[in-house]
Design brief:
The complex is a heterodimer of chains A (236) and B (312). Chain A is mainly alpha-helical. Helices cover 71% and strands 3% of the residues of chain A. Chain A has a domain at 63-215: Glutathione S-transferase Yfyf (Class Pi), Chain A, domain 2 (Up-down Bundle). The chains are: A mainly alpha (236), B mainly alpha (312).
């Protein structure tokens, strides 16, 4: 999710200095993810951030007509509904993954026994949510099938275009990139999830393209940003 | 030949075949794709709903969620999406996700959580269709499940109280309705002239909001301001469910049907009588049969056409 809105901010080509500062402050450890801290305002979640950025005068979806905007919102919901829930399911409801990866990772900043307590609490919370929306009864295969269907739909929509809505990237591209990149690069017990995504070559090409275009540039800048943020913290 | 398929679901009222959005979706899809489905609505019998409705039973397979039921119907070659391109299929998936995320919470809230609506309409209606004593327990359970679902999916920070969550979900629902209206535009169905899965889902979610008479109706009022969506619902109801548009005339049509049935029976009786008399007269040759045959012809001419139309 972090990656989604980083990509989005990069795509906005925002007056870079201003927003990158927000990014750098975000890199410091904080409570909720993702959120940005701009001046004295704190905005969290991709939706409000998009609106906030729009209010400041930058929007990626201005070039779309009404029907396309409706489609974009629908696809964003699909991604949220399917991919996000599937990621949560894999992290918290699949026992093997939970034991070996999630519990240690989630509880790592805290000493024992707090790490175990907090991660069990989070797991219980996620399982409750899954039950409420009807995913508790699903097996891993069914979840993977749903992810496959979702990727198939995204792949069909993308086709051979560079971005989902032709020539210019939109919020949808940022969201999809964030999720797919996370799936492709996170190490899990099994590679089934990333295999599902890799089946669709245009989606992997899409991720690679966005990475090259928007994030390789950032690596050069990040050294400059780190220098700038340390200067700012000194000034405070 | 496909095995006979039976669908158990909640019944309907106010001009709808069912009040339950998922049941309505499945019924609409069955009509669009021409699947021969026997619909059993839940009534006060002891075959109580176990788990979620709608439930499709075909031979030995029991399938319960709408998406799975639709998949099953497609495998049985009842496919309403045959003419769709791959991209349109992808769009269908996306729009269904939009409906479930944005519209369903508000729908659940209007039916099950809004206190006035729940106490005066939803609870008595559902309780009247479930056998005692389950009718005391089940509506409450459904209401709690709805609340749970809304709070768990929508109730995280920065929304901390139920009223804030409610405001947010109604905002989302209105936005969703606007988006659907823009997407539908002026065409008859979402993908051209034939209805598809997406039309079934949209109809299933919109029709209860549109038709059911609740005391607190701001979502319905918003929907009524989008005439193309209202027209969409009405079209499907009249074309595929042969129900009239306004809420009270199904009752009128029922009485008309009953009258028609009575008339048919009367006519049949009379024609039987006339035939018998005719036979008797033919056997006794002294009476001229001409008058009666003309009478029969006249009677037959008037009545044969309704009879041929009405006889099953």
């Amino acid at each position: 999710a972090t990656l989604c809105f980083q990509a989005f901010l990069q795509m906005c080509n925002l007056p870079i200095r201003v927003i990158c500062r927000a990014n750098a402050e975000y890199m410091s450890p904080s409570g909720k993810l993702p959120f940005i801290h701009v001046g004295n305002q704190v905005v969290s979640e991709l939706g409000p951030i998009v609106q906030f950025v729009k209010a400041k005068g930058h929007s990626l979806s201005d070039g779309l007509d009404e029907v396309q905007k409706a489609e974009m919102k629908a696809y964003m919901e699909l991604v949220n509904n399917m991919l996000l829930t599937a990621e949560l399911y894999l992290q918290w409801c699949d026992d093997v993954t939970v034991e070996e990866i999630t519990h240690p990772r989630y509880g790592s900043p805290y000493p024992w026994p707090l790490n175990r307590i907090l991660s069990y609490q989070k797991q219980w919370e996620v399982r409750r949510k899954m039950k409420a929306i009807g995913w508790a009864g699903k097996t891993l295969e069914q979840v993977l099938e749903d992810v496959d269907q979702c990727c198939h739909a995204l792949s069909q929509r993308l086709g051979t275009q560079p971005y989902f809505f032709n020539k210019h990237p939109t919020e949808l591209d940022a969201l999809v990139f964030g999720h797919l990149f996370t799936i492709l690069t996170t190490q899990l017990i099994t590679d089934e999830l990333s295999e599902k995504v890799k089946n669709y070559s245009n989606l992997t090409a899409f991720c690679r393209r966005i990475e090259q275009q928007y994030f390789e540039g950032q690596e050069r800048d990040s050294a400059a940003i780190a220098a700038r943020s340390s200067k700012r913290s000194l000034l405070r | 030949m496909a095995a006979p398929m039976e669908l158990s679901c909640w019944g309907g009222d106010w001009g709808l075949p069912s009040l339950h959005p998922q049941s309505l979706t499945v019924m609409a899809y069955a009509k669009f794709s021409g699947a021969p489905l026997t619909v059993n609505t839940i009534n006060k019998s002891w075959r109580t709903p176990k788990g979620d409705l709608p439930v499709l039973v075909s031979e030995d397979t029991v399938i319960s969620q709408p998406a799975k039921i639709l998949n099953f119907l497609r495998k049985q070659k009842y496919n309403a999406d045959y003419d769709l391109s791959a991209k349109q299929g992808a769009d269908t998936l996306a729009y269904v996700a939009l409906l479930e995320e944005k519209l369903l919470p508000a729908l659940l809230h209007t039916f099950w959580i809004e206190a006035e609506n729940y106490c005066s309409v939803t609870k008595p209606w559902f309780a009247s269709r479930i056998a005692f004593p389950l009718s005391l327990y089940l509506p409450g359970k459904m209401s709690r499940e709805a609340l749970n679902r809304i709070l768990l999916t929508k109730g995280g920070p920065p929304l901390y109280s139920l009223t804030e969550v409610e405001a947010q979900i109604y905002r989302d629902a209105k936005e969703c309705l606007n988006l659907l209206s823009k997407r539908l535009g002026t065409s008859q169905f979402f993908f051209g002239d034939t209805p598809t899965t997406l039309d079934a889902f949209v109809f299933g979610f919109l029709a209860p909001i549109y038709k059911v008479c609740f005391p607190r109706v701001h979502l319905q009022e918003h929907l009524k301001q989008l005439p193309n969506l209202c027209r969409f619902c009405d079209d499907i109801l009249t074309c595929y469910f042969r129900l009239t548009v306004s809420g009270h005339s199904p009752a009128g049509q029922d009485t008309a049907d009953a009258n028609l049935q009575k008339l048919t029976q009367l006519v049949n009786k009379e024609s039987n009588l006339i035939e018998k008399m005719d036979d008797n007269l033919r056997k006794s040759p002294q009476h001229p049969p001409r008058k009666l045959t003309t009478l029969k012809l006249a009677a037959g001419g008037e009545e044969s056409s309704p009879m041929s139309r009405l006889s099953p």
